[in-house]
Amino acid sequence: MAEKLKVDLVTPYKKILSEEVDEITATGALGEFGVLPGHAPFLTSLKIGELTYKKGGQLFHLAVNWGYFEVEDDKVTVLVETAERADEIDLERAKAALGRAEEALKRLSPEDKSYKTQEAALERALIRMQVAGKTTRK
C-alpha cells in the first residue's frame, strides 16, 4: 500500500494541483467523503463545495464547482468547472455575488427558468466565503 495519494486537479482552463498528499476530503453528490492511501477504486460526481487535502501535516482548502472525482491505484483525478485556493478567493467579490444571488432569488419563483442558476450562484458564493476564511494550518 502506498503512503501517499497522487492528486491531479484540473479545470477546463488549467491544472490547479498536481501533488502527492496524505489525504483528501471532498463534497460528493451524496455527501462529504474522505480518501486515504489504499482506498478502493471509485468514481463520483462532485457538487459545489470544499475540497481539503492534507500534506506534510498541513491542511489546504479549495472551493470547487461541480465535477468528477476518481480514485484508482492511489491516483486521484479531480475534474471540476472551477477551483480556487483559499488564499486566492476575493472575499469582497464573493460577498457581492452572494448579494446579487439573494436579490435575484427574492424576485424569482421556483418555477422560473433562472431560479436554479441563481440558487447555484448563491451556493458558490457561500462556499467561496467559507473557504476564504480558512488558511493553511498545521
List unreliable stretches of 5+ residues: none
The helicity comes to 25-40%
Q: Count of DSSP helices? A: 2
Radius of gyration: 16 Å
Shape: elongated
CATH class of the largest domain: Mainly Beta
**CATH superfamily membership of the largest domain:** F0F1 ATP synthase delta/epsilon subunit, N-terminal
The tally of domains stands at 2
Molecular structure report:
The protein is α+β, with helices and mostly antiparallel strands and 138 residues long. It folds into two domains: 82 residues, F0F1 ATP synthase delta/epsilon subunit, N-terminal (ATP Synthase, domain 1), CATH 2.60.15; 45 residues, Single alpha-helices involved in coiled-coils or other helix-helix interfaces. 25% of the residues lie in helices and 45% in strands. The protein is built from two helices and eight strands. Strands 1, 2, 3, 4, 5, 6, 7 and 8 form an eight-stranded mixed β-sheet that branches. A hairpin with a 2-residue loop joins strand 3 and strand 4. Helix 1 runs antiparallel to helix 2. The longest helix is centred in the last third of the chain and has 18 residues. The two termini are 25 Å apart. The model has no long low-confidence stretch (mean pLDDT 90). Its main location: membrane. F-type ATPases have 2 components, CF(1) - the catalytic core - and CF(0) - the membrane proton channel. CF(1) has five subunits: alpha(3), beta(3), gamma(1), delta(1), epsilon(1). CF(0) has three main subunits: a, b and c. Belongs to the ATPase epsilon chain family. One of its GO terms (molecular function) is ATP binding. This is ATP synthase epsilon chain.
